[in-house]
Amino acid sequence: EPEVTQTPSHQVTQMGQEVILRCVPISNHLYFYWYRQILGQKVEFLVSFYNNEISEKSEIFDDQFSVERPDGSNFTLKIRSTKLEDSAMYFCASSDQQAMTDYGYTFGSGTRLTVV
Amino acid sequence: AQTVTQSQPEMSVQEAETVTLSCTYDTSESNYYLFWYKQPPSRQMILVIRQEAYKQQNATENRFSVNFQKAAKSFSLKISDSQLGDTAMYFCAFKREYSGYALNFGKGTSLLVTP
After folding, report:
1. For a surface tag, which of A103, B10, B17, B77 has the fewest beta carbons within 10 Å of its beta carbon?
2. Are strands B24-26 and B3-5 parallel, antiparallel or unpaired?
3. Which of A48-57, B83-92, B98-107 has the lowest mean pLDDT?
4. Phi first, then psi: what are they for B78, rounded to 5°?
5. Is A35 helix (H, G, I), strand (E, B) or coil?
6. Is A98's pLDDT higher than 70?
7. Using CB atoms, which residue from A42, A56, A106 is nearest to B105?
8. What is the 3-state secondary structure (H, E, C) of A38-98?
9. Chain-chain contact of A41 with B52 (C-beta, under 8 angstroms)
């Protein structure tokens, strides 16, 4: 079964540094997403991406964040000048048009970001 | 904005028994999609079951079924014949039909299945 792959599984970074979280969506999917889950809290939507541009973003997704699809397979989330409160599990997800409504999305296993 | 409420932070059930997890939501839209996701200790989000609001019939996937009450805006998940592997966090999620791509999640219910 196709999977969404996220790397690394765990990233530790110093406060103020920039991090890039990487995702390889399912190959025929066209919609890509990032979600965040602070420990013990609910999963929160950050951003959706389609046709090489952001289609929707939440209030959380401010100028500190950016997304990019640098090539045909990767989808990245960049967090600039990380803060302690950015520590969370970050999930990538992808879907095709049909899956968006029929199946929800396929999530990756997440990247645990720890800011120290 | 849509809100999703899961009123049971933690639940426990014995193996082979049945348990029901509750979820309510608030929306003014007539059609939308509802989902239950499972998050085991591995932290991966796994889709358990989905329901389209305009479909009256309750969705069923093997041991998992929902009780969808549109007027009451309620979407509960029933797990029959509970297994140890069902131990996980369960999240209810809402998605608008025509605009927006975001899933709106509830805070989750932690389910423990005991031998």
Report:
1. B10
2. antiparallel
3. B98-107
4. -110, 130
5. strand
6. no
7. A42
8. CCCCCEEEEEEEECCEEEEECCCCCCCEEEECCCCCCEEEEECCCCHHHCEEEEEEEECHH
9. no
Confirm or reject contact between B33 and chain A (CB < 8 A): yes
Which of A72 and A95 is assigned the larger pLDDT?
A: A95
A42/B101 touch (CB, cutoff 8 Å), yes or no: no
Q: Tell me the nearest-neighbour CA distance from B32 into chain A, angstroms.
A: 9
Instruction: Verify whether the Cβ–Cβ distance B101 to A31 is below 8 Å.
Output: yes
Task: Please state the rounded mean pLDDT for residues A77-104.
Answer: 86
pLDDT in tens, A19-34: 999 999 998 888 999 9
Q: How confident is the model at residue A53 (pLDDT cuts 50, 70, 90)?
A: very high
Distance separating alpha carbons of residues A5 and B79, to the nearest angstrom: 29
Distance in Å, alpha carbon of B115 to nearest chain A alpha carbon: 25
- First-to-last alpha carbon distance for chain A, in angstroms, is 36
DSSP state letters, chain B: --EEE---SEEEEETT--EEE--EEE---S-EEEEEEEE-TT---EEEEEEETT--SPPEETTEEEEEETTTTEEEEEE-S--GGG-EEEEEEEEESSS----EE---EEEEEE-
